Amino acid sequence: MSQDKLHSNQQYPPFDDKNSETPDVGGGLPVIKYWAEHTLSPEGAKLWKTLLHHSACLSCSWGTGGQKGGFTNEEGEKLQRCMKSVEAISAEIKPGIKSQVFEQRTIEELQKLTSLEADRLGRLSFPMILRAGKSHYERISWSEIYEIVTEGFRKTPERVASYSSGRSSNEAAFLLQLIMRSLGSNNLADCSDLCHSPSTYGLEQMFATKTSVVSLESLKKSDCVVLAGSNSAYNHPRLMNELIELRRHGGKIIVINPMMEIGLVKFGSPAFPVKSLVPGSDIASLYLQPIPGSDSVLFTGIQKALIETGHIKTEFLQAHTEGWEPVVENARSTSWETIVEICGVSQNEIEAAATIIADAKGVVFAWAMGITQHDNGVDNVFSICNTALISGNIGREGAGLMPVRGHSNVQGFGSMGVTTQKIKKGLQQALEKLLGRSLSSVKGYDTRSLIEAADDHKVDTLICLGGNLYAANPDSTQAKRALGKIETIVYLATKPNLGHFHGLAKQNTIVIPVLNRFENPHKTTVESGNNFVRLNDEGKTHLQDADLIPEVKFLTELAHRIHGEYPVDWRRLQDTKFIRQLIAETVPGFEKMATIDETKEEFTISDRILTTPHFPTPSGKAKMFVTPLPQLTLPHQKTFAGAENHQGIVVALMTGRSYAQHNTVVYQIEDKYRGIPHRNCILMNRIDLEKIGLQEHQRVTVEGNAGKLENVEIIYGAVRPGAALMFYPEVNVIFNPAVDKRSGTPAFKRVPVFVYAENSPKNY
């Protein structure tokens, strides 16, 4: 029997079993302290200037800003800026890195830097290259850059690839995909492949949409939120304001997370200084801690409870869905014993969740990577959507589906066509008309398959528009090896990251310093996770003597040198106004982009917010899918090399970010809200550790299927038995995970690992 099943009926240690120094409230006064330290520091003037600039937040997709002002959201509410925004801005206004830093440090020395240390080097301020056989980065002229990169892009289209993150603008994203598709390449890998690709795939299959169907206005009309697999207190603090308000008005919140996070129990928001900041506001009405990877079964249980209590919306299903009968029969026929055994949540708890949903007037189902980063991530999304349909909570205001996305413009990249998944018919037709031919039918490389292809010597040239392809991938050894087989890699970035020191090409690794969102000499746009398009004003950089370039200028010049004036006058597009006009003509729902420069009217993308139960599918109905039971048995200890001589335990490891972290960028080494003092820790349940005679603060080895980390400190935490947590990206080095075959997303949230102490010999 698996460790998961052994643990399924055990009691968890109380929440106050945490470190005594850990706060009892998420957010709160430490946020104010951080703001004060930075805004009153020597960088304070630049920080405030940027905070007040009319541009969107650099951090998550729930950020604010744009034409309404830096602290104002799309509904006109004030004080909507969070600590993560300050962290991101503070990093961007650091001094430029002097050339001596790279002249004096070898690449081997740079590879010893941590993520935090690399970020604190400062801003990239000149273009540089690491040539084959050389030990140092050196300056490079723009003419040589264009010569090398243009030659690289003239390879066979299938051997040219791109990777991107949500840091950049819609305009840069549109240019990137148009350059690649003009070549005949669909190798448009994106950071979303590693996180919300199952959401995009699942929503497209069921509803013929790929994004949230809920606006901020609609969310405010709900009286229940189901928040699954998301630690929004860490990663989307502005969403917490909405949850606080929902609870204040009598609504309820169901949190689903194997890890009990302090900020999802109680959170203190600076947006409500009197009522919330110090005492904290209650968040979770019900907190469920399932076995990692079992979410589809948990939601099947909720469906079963709704059916058994007569709260299934049969008339709604008959009128507005297809394939609903098998889904209902699957929930009805799956026994409670099976459901409880697989998901580890009791029948009473599941029924309590169903009662809250049934009693609510409108439920919004929200989720993040705890749902998607599994080898059954698409099934998890299907099961959430099935639950929304069975309860009638979609296609009306105050109800619906809301994937909570990460980076500030990651959704915008998908809208612009940066994806290896099937693009919408309207966009495809418009691009084919523009190109004068059909788009290539060759399947493009998503992020994981890009690494696999590079490892097989199938990629010659790679351009990375932001992001950290090396560190974001699992199996860091493979990622480094694979990138080392690519002839030329071009990184466009504002700051150095680990990828620039480890993700090195075979011949030429070029790092191009670009202007950030609030520095560009032209307007740009971004898209929020709730389909709201913000306009960013022009700005200026504080790096007066730096040799920086706007991303749009580099991309258009490169495109001109590759394509001439096919299919557009690329150099004309250096004025981003003309890119927006092209987007308005090409991308469905973005028609208002044509006049946004004149009107400055930010907008919600048309036809995405569903307020009636008519869906953009051919039949107008949602298509439902039965979700099979996942296979969650953990491997036996004997499959790990360390088990030959040591006693230990196999657990399902979840990778996660710390509080002061944005994607792969680490701003502080400790995580005070979890009681974790540094990055080389594993957070586990006391029950698991006592079984094998281990104690808190003891040092252990954590072994995965691709490597091991040693001298890892044990920290007790309120994670369910059989599960554990370690920090991404450092832990990526030890595992090569299973991948969801439909979406290409790796299973970062269920990694089998063997935990043992070097001084714990195996008993024979």
Task: Break the fold down into its secondary structure elements and pairings.
Blueprint: H1 3-7, E1 26-27, H2 29-39, H3 44-51, H4 83-92, H5 99-104, H6 107-110, H7 115-119, E2 128-131, E3 138-139, H8 142-153, E4 160-164, H9 170-183, E5 188-190, H10 197-207, H11 216-219, E6 224-228, H12 232-235, H13 237-248, E7 252-256, H14 262-265, E8 266-268, E9 281-282, E10 286-288, H15 295-308, H16 314-320, E11 321-322, H17 324-333, H18 336-343, H19 347-359, E12 363-367, H20 369-372, H21 377-390, E13 400-403, H22 410-415, H23 425-435, H24 447-455, E14 461-465, H25 469-472, H26 476-483, E15 488-493, H27 498-502, E16 508-513, E17 524-527, E18 532-536, H28 551-563, H29 576-586, H30 596-599, E19 603-604, E20 622-623, E21 646-656, E22 661-662, E23 665-666, E24 681-684, H31 686-691, E25 699-703, E26 708-716, E27 723-727, E28 751-761
